[in-house]
Design brief:
By secondary structure, the chain is mostly helical. The protein contains 21 helices and four strands. A two-stranded antiparallel sheet has the order 1-2. It has a two-stranded antiparallel ribbon with strand order 3-4. The longest helix is centred in the N-terminal third of the chain and has 37 residues. The mean pLDDT is 92.
Length: 479
Amino acid sequence: MAQLWGGRFTKETDKLVYNFNASISFDQKFFGQDIDGSIAHVIMLAKQGILTKEEKDSILKGLAGIRRDVEEGRLKITDEYEDIHSFVEANLIERIGNDGKKLHTGRSRNDQVALDMRLYVRLEVLQVDELVKELLCTLLKIMEDNTDTYMPGFTHLQKAQPVTLAHHIGAYFEMFKRDRSRLKDIYHRMNYCPLGAGALAGTTYPLDRNYTASLLGFEGPTLNSMDSVSDRDYVIEFLSALSTVMMHLSRFCEEIIIWNSDEYRFVEIDDAYSTGSSIMPQKKNPDIAELIRGKTGRVYGALTAILTTMKGIPLAYNKDMQEDKELTFDAIDTVKGCLALFEGMVRTMKFNRETMKQSAMKGFTNATDAADYLVAHGVPFRDAHSVIGRLVLYCIDRHCSIEDLSIQELKEISPVFEEDIYDAVSLQTCVEKRLTLGAPGPAVMQEVIGAHREYLSKSWQDENKISIPGQTAEQNKYI
């Protein structure tokens, strides 16, 4: 059992206790971050005169060798080590001798793990952001191709007013756009370096924390050593953002599942993203959409778990906080997988435009426009609303639509109706005359699509010159 401590103890840890306490099975996931942080730490120690140039070069060469051997499969990360930090340091000492024992100078596992987790989450924020952006590009293409694809809009799962597929998809564009905004905010709020905080009270060594932060691409060092090692707000924020992403995916999946049903037939999911039945040969099931909808609860569970873990922890570091890793890793992997699969499913999905149009022509989606027609001819809105209510009831009794009635029938309900009512309640008119910004009218939809194109042509990562890891030529030799 390779451990970084033991001088205080007179006998070995019980095997069950060791296994319960160990984190190597999951924290090996940020092996790369642990090496990166150690490289920056060593470069800073040498700059401050705490290590000699020879010691620095020896340690950096050893770390680079460990990274290379792990990546190329010559060195295995095994459970004989308590955690990834023990693995790296023990192998370093084995390779270079006493110089390796100086790696941990001015550092605690508390600020080391805080750094590793922050580096890992920071990178994952960027990767999730790229996946959301890719999905937005696919949604925008659907919008561009469907500004005149008519469909019913719904409230309470009942047909309400006619819209276009571009307008409907645009609602999800706004949701995922907000998700990217949240990710950007999280990135900037978390982008401060905890290394140098020590166990909780800093260190007596003359560390240059600003320099270490710059080497690792942070905006600066954290400003309170106790908070540095006990802060997991950024994990909570990230899991909250991931939960919101999954909520948006789940809502969209729910609609796709409904649209894919034989009762709607609005879409046909590509064979590559569908499955069949073991007993019913006619079935084509929307399993990917259903699984994404189901996995949403899994990500919610991670958020609830970390909130529950953190709620009763006094300052500063406590072992409870080790529970932040497995659930966060799982949530990240789940969301990234769901985003990639969902984008592929939507990109290859076929929309049955004529079926959508016919559906929009049924269910009295033009009733509001009929009321607006009366208002335009001097009828108070509340009276117009009542008239159209009676008109809809009349049509229901006769199994027809408003536009199926003769002008004589319409006039019997209200003498205000004239021949131009038919044009006023046509599907095309109902959509095209809605010209307020954010509505489905073609002119304003083109304006919104143009704004979306401009938005996607830029990247907040590029705008903020985000490039990690590495800021110096010396550092990049080892990263």
